Amino acid sequence: MTTPLRMRQRRRFRIVSHLFSAGCLAATVLCVGMLLVLVLNVAKQGAAWLDTDFLRNFPSRHPEKAGIRSALAGSLWLTTLTALISLPLGVGAAVYLEEYAKKGRWRELVQVNISNLAGVPSIVYGILGLGLFVQAFALGRSIISGALTLSLVVLPIIILATQEALRGVPDSIRHASYALGATRWQTVWCQVLPASLPGIMTGVILALSRAIGEAAPLVAVGAVAYVPFVPGGVLDPFTALPIQIFNWSSRPQPEFHQTAGAAIIVLLVVLVTMNTTAVFVRYRYGKRTRW
Amino acid sequence: MKRYETDIVRSVATLVSVQIQTMSNRFQRAVSTRRAFEKLIHASLFVCAGISVVTTVSIVVVLLMESLQFFFHVSVFRFLTETRWTPLLRPQHFGILPLFSGTMLIAAGSSFLSVPVGLGTAVYLSEYSRPRVREIVKPFVEVLAGIPSVVYGYFAVVTVSPFVRMLFPSAGPFNAASACIVVGIMTLPMVISLSEDALRAVPQSLRQGAYALGATKYDVTVQVVIPAAMSGIVASFLLAISRAIGETMAVTLAAGATPNLTLNPLESIQTMTAYIIQISLGDTPAGTVEYRTIFAVGLALFMATLLINLLAHWFLKQMRERYE
Predict the structure, then answer these.
(1) A127 in reach of chain B (CB within 8 A)
(2) Which of A32, A109, A185 faces B137 most closely, judged by CB atoms?
(3) Which of A248, B5, B226, B249 could form a disulfide with B150 if both were Cys (CB 3.0 to 4.6 A apart)?
């Protein structure tokens, strides 16, 4: 038998529980909604400015003549160099930690260190790049300084993703390889790395897409917004797509906000393409290997 | 056996033994080159892993060296207690408090958005939603995480700031509130994915036990699952705060460049990160006190984020130890 009091209590509980689940749903809708608002706003601002001239022109004081040629070239330089530097170092470090290092103090130390590096703000890497590459190594405010700094930013991401991928390879593969007389490196190079390649590729693509969008460390290292030429070597001064967007967004004229919007569309298209590739690689090649 | 036959046998035997000897020599040489190669590989992989340690050490060394030279000029006490920050104006003041309060304002303000919305989304995705909905929402969250910070800054300038000024006409074109909103959106994915991981790591048996005692879904979620996942959830909040502290481009674009010791989110402020950008964009010559300020500010920033990250990892470790 339920008394009226308990019925009222139960009704109140039901209301609270409904409110709670509605609140959680609302939060989720809000998340998705904010993303849509952001993308639609950018598209509305920038779409009208996006044409081939915008891709071909150099930056200019006149918004109608301004373009992102040098920014695109700079981003391409930076991404290529960053990939060349960080890929071997990152995969090498991950292979060392997973396949070579014995469990112990040293490995623990390196591991904790890497997860802490992943949390260091990118602007701090920028200051490091300024003190180390620009000043101490006397590389100047050049593409190579920027690429080295970006490599430091993405290294922890690549290492952690590669470790994850290597851990996914079952030990039976390694044991079988050793049983056939393979050395440790032969096992890693011919068995473990090919098997974990999809995971590594996904991690590397995601890390590079982080590098493409990163502006703060480049500003600290000394990227300049106005570069009226395509850089020809690694010691040239440079700009990059995010730097150009930052520069245009910080100007008061609304026309420049629209060119910034157009540049953001280009940047987002590049990023979405890379992310889709990463998902595709994970899906397509990850499926083939069944343990 | 005839004599010449034994001769043949003998010479064949010598030939074979010589052959075997050269083969085994060759084999031994191959083994030793193989071994040397393996050692070389081992050493170079060791160097790769060592680079991460070298990176940390050089961050500390570079920041400390330049900061020390700064602190010869300005005492640590003045740096930490003075309430004005005007390194580029005369008279110069080097009190980091205004920058620190700006950073804290952004960290706290963004948490007001990211903590409830992020936790709500995580609870919905983990406890309430059907798997299909989760599969649709998760990629959206991942996209939100992949958008570069400068794009959020643009969003703040073009959309959020006019909106804030429409609601509060007293707000300036640069204000902390719009920076808080976009940084909150930026840190949402971190809260969502880490909290959701924590909620999903809670063993199913706990939920079933609570249901068996007659608890409703709400009771199970609020009184069993969330408390059980608490350390993971707290870790996600901490990591979001640390991300907000280190956030640079969006804050620089949205919050302005006025070091201001205030808690009013409608005013223009400057964070530690935005100050570093301001100096980097200007033409302060290397070696001056003004130039060294960015290393001192960077050191403060590095220490703050490092502390929070270590705390967050400690919480995550608690979580892992409990359920694995």
Answers:
(1) yes
(2) A32
(3) B249
- A-contacting residues of B 242-301, CB under 8 Å? 242-243, 245-249, 252-253, 273, 276-277, 280-281, 286, 294-295, 298, 301
Partner residues linked to B85 by β-bridges: B94
Tell how far CA B162 is from the center of its chain: 30
Three-state SS for B168?
A: coil
Contact B249 A242 (CB under 8 A): yes
What ipTM did this prediction achieve? Answer: 0.89
**Contact indicator for A263, A215 with CB cutoff of 8 Å:** no
Contact B31, B23 (CB under 8 A): no
pLDDT single digits (tens) B195-215: 999 999 999 999 999 999 988
- Using CA atoms, how far apart are residues A16 and B296, in angstroms rounded to an integer? 50
Q: Is the pLDDT score of A48 beyond 90?
A: no
Q: Where are the alpha helices (DSSP H) in A47-136?
A: 52-56, 69-95, 105-117, 122-129
Q: For residues B43, B49, B50 and B54, what is the CA-based torsion angle, rounded to 10 degrees?
A: 150
pLDDT value, residue A290: 55
Cβ-Cβ contacts under 8 Å for A169 (sequence gap 6 or more): A191, A192, A195, A196
CB A156 within 8 A of CB A117: yes
Q: Please tell me the distance from the alpha carbon of residue B106 to that of residue A47, in angstroms, as a whole number.
A: 31
Chain A residues whose beta carbon lies within 8 Å of the beta carbon of residue B52 = 93, 110, 113-114, 117, 155-156, 159
Of the candidates A24, A123, A135, the beta carbon closest to that of B276 is on A123
| Least confident span in B44-48, B105-109, B139-143, B239-243 | B139-143
pLDDT for the residue B195? 94
Mean pLDDT of A203-229: 88
pLDDT at A3: 62
Q: How far is CA B39 from the centre of its chain?
A: 34
pLDDT computed for residue B190 by the predictor: 92
| The residue to which tokens 């967004």 are assigned | A249
State the nearest Cα–Cα gap between A114 and chain B, in angstroms. Answer: 6
**Cα gap A113→A120, rounded to integer Å:** 11
pLDDT tier at B55, thresholds 50, 70, 90: very high
**β-strand partners of B94:** B85
Grade residue B1 by pLDDT with cuts at 50, 70 and 90.
Answer: low
Q: What is the pTM of this model?
A: 0.89
